[in-house]
Task: inverse folding
């Protein structure tokens, strides 16, 4: 019985796959590939409409975890990177050395990087996760469960770059090439 069922089932699968390929629209390169989906337009300046008017005013710095202590007054006249990250998120952990290098490259007199851990309530766990990936001497301010007032962050890591006047310049993944450009442009505005 099995000798009859397996070949019949296999033929049915192949037949339905062939029909699906025949019904799919063709791509310009070959007749067997379905057409690629239309590109999704990028929002202006990589900003979600709900976050376009964000500022650092009213930012919550949560609980200090490690690195230099930071207060809202420290942001005045400086470029700021406010990054949301999680202690068990592989892309977040991979971006920690990059954030530390960015902070070191521009100095705390022009740029303040705040790494805002949002997954665990345990500050010791957040500290250990950050320090495991950070260079020995880092100047990033690590906080737990802070936030930018009104921000709608759907995933981590998520970085926001603010101009010295506290207005949002850019937001997205901290390893995106646009992040570096936004940081340099914001730092250039520091007087």
Result:
């Amino acid at each position: 019985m099995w000798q009859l069922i397996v070949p019949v089932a296999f033929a049915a699968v192949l037949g339905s796959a062939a029909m699906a390929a025949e019904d799919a629209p063709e791509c310009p390169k070959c007749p067997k590939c379905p057409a690629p989906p239309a590109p999704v337009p990028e929002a202006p300046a990589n900003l979600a409409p709900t976050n376009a008017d964000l500022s650092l005013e009213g930012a919550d710095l949560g609980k200090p975890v490690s690195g230099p202590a930071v207060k809202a007054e420290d942001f005045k006249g400086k470029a700021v990177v406010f990054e949301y990250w999680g202690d068990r998120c592989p892309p977040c952990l991979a971006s920690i050395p990059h954030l530390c290098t960015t902070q070191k490259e521009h100095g705390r007199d022009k740029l303040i990087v705040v790494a805002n851990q949002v997954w665990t309530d345990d500050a010791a766990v957040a500290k250990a996760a950050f320090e495991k990936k950070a260079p020995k001497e880092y100047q990033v301010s690590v906080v737990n469960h802070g936030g930018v007032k009104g921000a709608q962050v759907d995933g981590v890591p998520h970085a926001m770059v603010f101009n010295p006047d506290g207005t949002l310049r850019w937001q997205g993944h901290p390893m995106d090439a646009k992040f570096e450009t936004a940081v340099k442009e914001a730092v250039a505005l520091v007087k």
Q: What stands out?
A: The helical segments are 2-23, 90-106, 123-133, 177-188. Residues 1-49 have pLDDT under 50 and may be disordered.
